[in-house]
Amino acid sequence: MSQNYNNPAFKKLLQKLQEESWQLELLISGFAIFGLFTIFDPITNSMHEARNSQQIYKFVISLVAQISCAILIFNLVLHVLLRGLWIGALGLRYVSGDIDYEELNYSEKFTKYLKKKVGSFDRYIGTLENYCSIIFAISFLLIFYVLALTFTIVFIALIANYIIDSDWLPGWLSKGIGVPLMIFLCIGMIITFIDFVTLGFLKKKKWLSKIYFPVYWVFSFVTLSFLYRPLVYNFLDHKFGRRLSFILVPFYLLILLLTSFYYQNSNYINANVDSSAIMANVENYEDHLATNEKFTGDVTIPSKVISESYLKVFLLYHERIEDRIFAFDSTLKPKEDLRGLQNEIGGNNFMRGSKYDSLRRDYLKMFNKIYTVRIDSTKYESDFILTQNFKNELGFETYINLDSLSKGKHVLNIDRLRIRKGDTINWNVQKIPFWYFKD
Q1: Cα three-residue angle 222-223-226, rounded to 5 degrees
Q2: Burial of residue 137 (number of CB atoms within 10 Å: 0-12, 13-18, 19+)
Q3: What residue numbers bound the domain in which 415 lies?
Q4: Is the separation of the CB atoms in 419 and 406 below 8 Å?
Q5: CA pair distance 237, 199, nearest whole angstrom
Q6: Same domain, 178 and 78
Q7: Are 216 and 326 part of one and the same domain?
Q8: Residues 329 and 208 in one domain
Q9: Mean pLDDT: which of 139-143, 199-203, 372-376 is highest?
């Protein structure tokens, strides 16, 4: 059938499908809205977890998914509301027909004004139909725009990490290829964006179009625009579509601005302040984390009130910890860094065997040298080991003997060594207040 798109029968079929498409639009919108609201919170949680554990790949994927969900939810809910209004207008037209301005018996001034501004009821129904169809189509087009921006940023990051900062390419080659590619992509991204917001201005000028064409050709693959280009140009060749595109972009920015507002009810108190000697944030206490949706802090203890003769301390793992260990002991840094995306096809590259068990012991020894535990001003012996917490998050755990600790309020301090301007200094990572009352 795709080969016979000029066939009159095919055009007749398309016309029929266009007239009946509103039913499919409502069906798809209903199912999509239900599914999107269902997965929005899990995606948001995944994004926050990835940010807390500093998993950049997972964070980017979750962020793009969250933005896409938000766009689709807003557009599809707007589409359903307008379709509902459109169906209501059709029902009213069946009962009442067109607007009879003479029956209203208004003054001549108001009658002329309303005829000019309101016009025919059929025109109103037709306008609603246009808005509904375009909003439904543009909902999915906007997802492609988000992906286009994401892929462009990913390409820039890949060139920076795997070409310019490459360890396996000669310096002259990595800089000679990477730097021009980076400059081309950055300038090309700006030029393509200018062409996008001006609705193709660079394509209209003869001499500019010749310069812009190579950039356009490359970015059609970088942004995958060749997949949705017909949809874009079908919007741009229609006056109503262009007008709606101009309206929606500022509208989205306005929504983003409005959703960023919040009410601050104190000059000094805020629930999101990090734990300190005078503040206890629930993200640092496991019993609070088990009963709400807060995310695990970098350091956690079982509770605000400790009644046992020992204190469990859990320190959440993230990639920066490994970078710090490598900074203090470069012999632990492997020739091939296995962090990042891996593929199980072809075997798992994770280090196994007695040789690597020895390296892990050295890894933990260095970690225990870098990270130390204090309660108030007294340093305590700690022996962190690798484990998972109650949320199955990977980290380091140790137990502190509290037999000599007095009853009452105390502050747990987690310190780490830090290289600063060539000197090694002690840096406080976290303060967590707790109360010790032994049973």
Answers
A1: 100
A2: middle
A3: 282-334+356-436
A4: no
A5: 10
A6: yes
A7: no
A8: no
A9: 372-376
Q: What are phi and psi of 53, to 5 degrees?
A: -90, 0
Question: C-alpha 432: how far from its chain's center?
Answer: 30
SS3 string, the chain, reads: CHHHCCCHHHHHHHHHHHHHHHHHHHHHHHHHHHHHHHHHHHHHHHHHHHHHCCCHHHHHHHHHHHHHHHHHHHHHHHHHHHHHHHHHHHHHHHHHCCCCHHHHCCCHHHHHHHHHHCCCHHHHHHHHHHHHHHHHHHHHHHHHHHHHHHHHHHHHHHHHHHHHCCCCCCHHHHHHHHHHHHHHHHHHHHHHHHHHHCCCHHHHCHHHHHHHHHHHHHHHHHCCHHHCHHHHHHHHCCHHHHHHHHHHHHHHHHHHHHHCCCCCCCCCCCCCCCCECCECCHHHEHHHHCCCCCCCCCEEECCCEECCCEEEEEEECCHHHHHHHHHHCHHHCCCCCCCCCCCCCCCCCCCCCHHHHHHHHHHHHHHHHHEEEEECCEEECCCCEEEECCCCCEEEEEEEECCCCCCEEEEEEEEEEEEECCEEEEEEEEEEEEEECCC
Cα distances from 12 to residues 133, 219, 235, 238, in angstroms, run 19, 36, 22, 21
pTM tops 0.85: no
Q: Kindly state whether residues 60 and 96 are assigned to the same domain.
A: yes
Please write the tens of the pLDDT for every residue from 416-425: 998 887 788 8
In total, how many domains does the chain have? 2
Cα torsion at 363, 364, 367, 373 (round to 10°)? Answer: 180
Return the CATH number at 374.
2.60.40
Mean residue pLDDT across the chain: 81
Q: How far apart are CA 28 and CA 73, in angstroms?
A: 12
Residues 242 and 294 grouped into a single domain: no
Residue 34 CB partners (closer than 8 Å, separation 6+):
none
Give the model's confidence band at 384: pLDDT under 50 very low, under 70 low, under 90 confident, else very high: very high
Instruction: Tell me the two tokens of residue 163.
Output: 């070409």
What is the widest separation between alpha-carbon atoms in the chain?
A: 96
Residue 150 corresponds to which amino acid? T
**Paired residues of 413 in beta bridges:** 374, 431
